[in-house]
Amino acid sequence: MKINKFVIGGMLILGAVVFLIWSATASTSEYFLTIDELNAKGSSIVDKNLRVSGAVIGETIQYDSQSLTLTFEVAHVAGDNAQLATEGGLAEALHQAVMDPSRERMTVVYVGPLPDLLRHEAQAIVTGHLGADGIFYADELLLKCPTKYEEAVPEQVG
Amino acid sequence: MIADFGFGVLVVSFLVALYSVLAAIYGEVKKSAALVESARRAMLLTWPLLTLTAGILIYLLVNNHFEVQFVYEVTSRSMPTYLKVTAWWGGQAGSLLFWSWLMSAFASLVTLRKWDRDREFLPWVIVVACVTMAFFIGMNVFFENPFAQLYQTFDGINAFTFQPADSILFTPPDGRGLNPLLRHPGMVIHPPMLYLGFVSFVIPYAFAMAALITGRTDDRWIRITRRWTLWAWLFLTFGLVLGGRWAYDVLGWGGYWGWDPVEIAAFMPWLTGTAFLHSVMIQEKRGMLKHWNMLLIILTYSLVIFGTFLTRSGVLSSVHAFAQSAIGPLFFTFIGLTLITSIALIFYRWSALKSETQMTSLLSREALFLLNNLLFMSILVVCFWGVIYPLISELFTGQKVTVGPPFYERATGPLWAALLFLMGIAPLSAWGHSTVKTLGRAIWKPAFGAIIITIALYMYYTHNIYAIIGFFLVALVLLVTLYEYWRGAYARQRNQGENIFVAFWNLTGRNRRRYGGYIIHLSIMLMAIGILGIELFQTETQGTVSAGNSIDIAGYTVQYKEVATWDDAPKGVSYTRAVVDIYKNGIYLGELHPRKDYYFDSQQNMTIPGNRSTMKDDLYVLLVDWQPISSEGATFKIYVNPLVNWLWMGSLLFMVGIVIAALPDKDPEHVVVREGKRLPQTSAAD
User: Which of B401, B406, B415 is facing A32, going by the closest CB pair?
Assistant: First the structure.
């Protein structure tokens, strides 16, 4: 009998934790998509939680400091690391993405302070939702500049 | 030339570490004390060798040897010397070397202790420490050589360990420099603190493995490593807090913790380590949970290696990520092998690890400790699930699905609340057997006080239900802990006739572990107040104002005065600094200077907030944009972060608590002898 109450207690805790994880996952998960995938899905994913990665096109960056509204375009880059590696690494893949006018693009709108790392050929990972107007409304904006971190080989030096 | 020498010393230290492993195993098998002693000395040699290696690397960093690829990547001429030195751990290759160097220092420290009573552990502690060390040095030797130099060949410029045929050494005129975001005092000590924490957890693991292999599975290994574990915990905690403080000061988003995968990677060993610290007490007091403790320290070790790997691998999108490299699969192999071997050893010694007593009462101290452990493990599972969920979802649905901060907040929130509640009742329950009645008798006074405080908060401060629950739990734990403290001191005051303050002091001194633990609990409550404050009551606003005009937020008035820009050419920075006057309810409080620095070499901005910090709240002003000439003025983003200072105060007290718990208890007899000899000094020395 004494073992039983510990077993029951343990099961209850286990159940509670599984429920917590399951419900939190169900209500907060975000689909991680590339811009190609996003466009392929079309309107079926409007208003879902999304996370999209793309290469920032420098000349499209507009910032309205009155309303703190940031607008910029990103070009499609591959989502997984293996694919990026075959394209010559993240920095090269971002460079190619920005140079190629035939790549799928997406407009992003974000309200907040202008991020320090936002620049031409940075990788933007935006979290938010796609509006019915085809514009991505980002709640969160994560930027990565490969040139600022380590890279295998310096190419443009000297 | 000197770089080649550095690589040579690195290779020698790798061979010495390998020799140490082999000599220790062979010596133990052949029962040769001389060979084991030789292994011990070889292990002692690794520290001077790696110190020399590191010294050479630092020499190269400080003297702008840009022909060395690592130096080129992490330093530049405009960086001050102290940043060039700390650039040692600013990149992948250097930070792996830093890891090995710390490992060798701790291995040496542990070798120098008195081994008389635990001679049988020695060879196996050497084996575990040196296998770990050899793995990390091997990474440097074979994959991430910090001394690789740039050579110009027909194929272009590449980094090589040895000069290829038909090539000339290539020296770039300047290095790329450290990311300006990382040029911050907090960032200079945050990685080494985390690494200190990571590496010192290897020592308790080494003793645990030694205990399993030798079959000496009593609690001796726990008693030997208790202090190591506490120091490891201290460093890891300090590293995490520093990271949070750095984010708050530098990243300019008004927060301190973003549930970033790399943050979680550093947090996971902290969770298992904390669970371990609690559950070893049950083994010491009651001889239970021996398998569990072994499992916890093994998990902590694996998570430490995993954390090091994650912060250095770039497999996840994160502000911390370095570039990808070939070492990922090797890390996974190493983690897999050590984990499987360790768990196999637990099964091998399964029967020797049987509990000496049975758990009978659900409310006994040991049952509540077990519950505490389950909660920590649940938080670990949540974190782990969050990190691997994208991989799992991709595997099963072909669609990458990720989770963000809301997931972690929702899933861990109730678990944290349950931990707080346990912190309130566990110190009052008895070992062996407790009932609702005995617990109720002990808790009713603090619980009553906590309810009064909560009602007052509800009437005068907030109606937010999460805040009310949170503050109730905080008040409960605070009162229970203080009440326990007071009861102990009061008893001393009555029995020994001591002044109440002296009684407090002596009480802590006589049982440092217990009262150090209480101080840690108190400090966590202070931190909880800060976290509740900023998470639930943060307010923010933004606006563009011309000179002389102001923005209002939460009783504060921020009045814009002026903005100025100037260049500092030698440092390669352009500063833009705004001056704002701060008023609260019409009373002038002073100026703040939010800044935006622009670094020419990396073409990057760095936003530095102007922060007015009080115990009640922080006024956190960011300069977003400005028009220097026109009358448009400047744009600010302003946060008011209530109570956040309690978080930093609490974390300082947390460190104090760990230090108290880690210091040896005062030995009563010793004090008596001293009192007899030197009477006048005792009060000062005590």
Answer: B401
Give B325's pLDDT tier (boundaries 50, 70, 90).
Answer: low
Least confident of B302-311, B322-331, B433-442, B576-585: B322-331
Q: Given 3-state DSSP classes, what are the helix, strand and coil percentages for chain B, each rounded to the nearest 5?
A: 65, 15, 20
DSSP string spanning A17-61? HHHHHHHHHHHH-EEEE-HHHHHHHGGGGTTS-EEEEEEE-GGG-
How do B573-584 and B587-592 pair as beta strands?
Answer: antiparallel
Residues of A in contact with B399 (CB under 8 A): 31
**How far apart (Å, rounded) are the C-alpha atoms in residues A120 and B264?**
30
ipTM value, please give it. Answer: 0.78
List CB contacts (< 8 A) between B375 and chain A.
13
pTM score of the predicted model: 0.88
Q: Where are the domains of chain B?
A: 1-114+122-178, 179-393, 407-536+650-685, 538-646
Q: How many Cα atoms occupy the beta-carbon half-sphere of B577 within 13 Å?
A: 10
> What CA–CA distance (Å, rounded) separates B281 from B366?
9
Q: What local confidence, expressed as pLDDT, does residue B252 receive?
A: 67
Helix or strand holding residue A124 (H, E): strand A123-130
Handedness of CA B146, B151, B155, B157 (dihedral sign): positive
Say which residue, B495 or B407, is predicted with more confidence. B407
Cα-based angle A75, A77, A83 (whole degrees, multiple of 5): 165
Element (H, E) at B588: strand B587-592
Q: For residue A125, which residues of chain B lie inside 8 Å, CB to CB? A: 317
Q: Closest approach of chain B CAs to the CA of A148, in angstroms? A: 6
Contact B92 A150 (CB under 8 A): yes
Element at B558 (helix H, strand E):
strand B556-568
Quick check: B545 contacting A, CB < 8 Å? no
Q: Which residues of B, range 442-461, sit inside 8 Å of A by Cβ?
A: none
Who among B157, B393, B400 is closest to A157 (CB)?
Answer: B157
- Bridge partners, B566 (sequence order): B575
Enumerate domains of chain A plus CATH numbers: 30-145 (2.40.50.140)
For tokens 């802590």, name the residue. Answer: B508
Name the DSSP letter for residue B316: S
The one-letter amino acid code at A9 reads G
Which of A34, A50, A116 should be substituted to probe chain B, the one whose Cβ sees the most B Cβ atoms within 10 Å? A116
Residue entry with tokens 């107007």: A133
